[in-house]
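Quick check before the chapter quiz. The format below is the same one you will see on the exam, so make sure you can read both the input and the output lines.
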Amino acid sequence: MNSFAQLRAVVQTPLRLPSPLSRHRLAPDRHAVHGDLILTAVSGPGPQCNTAAVLGPEPIERVLALADSFFAGAEYSILVEADTTPQLEEALRARRWRLDEEEPALVLSPIPQPLPTATPADLTIHLVTTAAQFAQYLELSQNLWVPSLAAARDPAVGLLIGLVATQPVAVARFTCFGAVGEVLGVETQPAHRRRGFGMALTWAAIAEAARRGCTAVTLNASASGYPLYRRMGFVPVGTYRTYAPPEPPTPPG
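Here is the expected output.
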């Protein structure tokens, strides 16, 4: 049985370590760790994202000073581990930072063996390895965080696509951070939901991450996905909240 501290460390791993996708971008991500403050600047191709992740008690003055210096005047968001940062959140709200997103963080540790293999009979799941499969994945997911086929074929990255007959209907992806895998972007086309496809893609992503050496998996859940992941055995560890910077004041008249 893992302690809460061990589960929390699993959840934090994808934030504390540089992403393997960094080596496939036009410019490598910039990543700096200052105790419980992690600063990450992601460049293109794909979305550009500046994030200050606060994973423990940190004074607002230190967070803003280090983040302002690191991002050199560029806009950034602040992600907080809500259970450990109440004073920081209060200070952010007082400075008019706006809550943009809230997601529970869950952990499956250890990955169960043997893994469930109950894939719906009409669904086939493929690991994305070709340009045609990558194009199908992008069409379904609209996800540009994986910038190229080379990135999709990285040993620490995996994209999966589920098909009914020859029609792509569901996708998922994962990233390996050493022994910790992160599952992301599980999505099923609306017309094919409530048929077990999302669960099947999630188990397939976990199985492939385990094959590459992961012993635990973490993910952030949407409201609709949370009950599914709980049924699969994932344990909630905390909540991440993302704050957007204050809106600029409206010019007079």
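If your answer matched, good. Helices lie at 4-16, 60-71, 86-94, 131-141, 149-152, 197-211, 226-232.
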